[in-house]
Amino acid sequence: MRKYKRVLLKVINFISIFILCRFLFKKFYKNSKEADYSYLYNKNETDIKACIFILCQNKDQEKLIKTIHELEDTFPHNYPYILLNDVPFTETFKTAISSAVRTRAHFGLIDKKYWSFPKGITKKDVGKNLIPGQFVLFNDRISYRHMCRFESGFFYNHPMLKPFDYYWRVEPGVGFHCKLQEDPFKFMRDNNKIYGYVISLIELKSTVPHLWETVKEFMRKYPQYIANPNSLDFLSHDNGKTWNLCHFWSNFEIADMRFFRSEKYETFFKFLDEKGGIYYERWGDAPIHSIAASLFLEPDKIHFFKNIGYTHWPVTYCPDDPLITPHCQCPEIIDEARDTCNRNLFRLQKKLYGIQN
Ligand SMILES: *[C@@H]1O[C@H](CO)[C@@H](O)[C@H](O)[C@H]1NC(C)=O
What GO biological process, any one, is recorded here (predicted)? Predict the structure, then answer.
């Protein structure tokens, strides 16, 4: 009996030490991970908590410097730049970019946890739900899918983006063509806009064969998250039965991260992430952001920046508008603002709010 008691005491002792260790480890681990970057926002410099957000690699240096110069020529501003990479930036890169920007550039690393496969998915699953025989751009690139996953579900919670409400997403190599007459962040804030875009496109069906079914399942499961009114008409010609593949091209975005940090968006991302389609197919952050913005926001929260002339190869948007065109230096005027995808959204915004795009 006494022997039994001693063994029991030993077990209890062991368990309590184990629990204590776990607690200490977690506490230390958490503290070491969540550095405080609140100083990145300086209210003496900008009234709005906004930044220019760039996900890039060391090899992008030259392209990025050109892009930064074009951005600052068309929009002289005081906002800081937050640059993130999945591997450390080199000193050469940091020096070059720091001297290219008029404000300050801050360089950060993405934790492996947010640039990797989710639980239960491995390399051999990549592309397994695609339709055989259909061509899928970047299908062979695993890092492309990690990037899509990061841009869909994690960037806005990176500790260096946490101090900010708004971001302007810029990619190395993109071009800007029109001198802005107003601060787009101020426009977003003063007009209660949440998601801003320039180009809308038709998605390549082969990359997302089962995305819409999954979205419909989400809508049935979480009807409370669907805004009323919403922009389902932007996504669908038949009231949601099928997706017309319209989406906002997310390599350009000016948006409010508080939307992505909301329960509805986080639940949506988690749901899609667990379905595995980012890897089993090749769901991108563009359709994921676009579907969320269209379903969870009222249509007047989405803004088409018709005054931002923009090129992301191979697509250019350059406004054909007597009030804006004189401020632009475009390779040529390419104004597809009235194409099908935009037309559906504009019609809705006009009908509901009298917004003229
Ligand atoms: C902001 O300006 C005030 C007054 O000039 C100064 O005391 C403060 O240190 C500045 N804060 C930062 C973060 O630069």
Answer: cell wall mannoprotein biosynthetic process
> Is 111 inside any structural domain?
yes
Query: Ligand 1 centre and the CA of 45: distance in Å?
Result: 9
Atom of ligand 1 nearest to the CA of 44: 1
User: 73 C-alpha to center of ligand 1: Å?
Assistant: 28
Confidence band of 214 (pLDDT split at 50, 70, 90): very high
Amino acid letter for position 61? Q
Q: Is residue 185 part of a domain?
A: yes
User: Would the pLDDT of 338 be above 90?
Assistant: no
> Which protein residue has the closest C-alpha to ligand 1 atom 10?
44
* Structure tokens, 86: 């999945």
Report how many domains make up the chain. Answer: 1
Best probe residue, ligand 1, of 44, 49, 78 (max atoms within 8 Å of C-beta): 44
pLDDT at 246: 97
C-alpha to C-alpha distance for 122 and 118, rounded to whole angstroms:
8
Active site residue 253: yes
Ligand 1 cavity residues, CB under 6 Å: 42, 44
**Residue tagged active-site, from 253, 274, 298, 332:** 253
Q: What is the domain-level CATH number for residue 256?
A: 3.90.550.10
The 10s digit of each residue's pLDDT in 89-101 is 999 999 999 999 9
Cβ neighbors of 356 (< 8 A, separation 6 or more) are 350
Q: Could you list the residue range(s) of the whole structural domain that residue 103 is in?
A: 40-353
pLDDT digits (tens, 9 = 90+) for 275-310: 999 999 999 999 999 999 999 999 999 999 999 999
Tell me the pLDDT of the chain averaged across its residues.
93
Alpha helix ranges (H) inside the chain = 2-33, 61-74, 91-100, 142-153, 184-190, 211-221, 232-235, 257-260, 263-275, 277-280, 285-296, 340-353
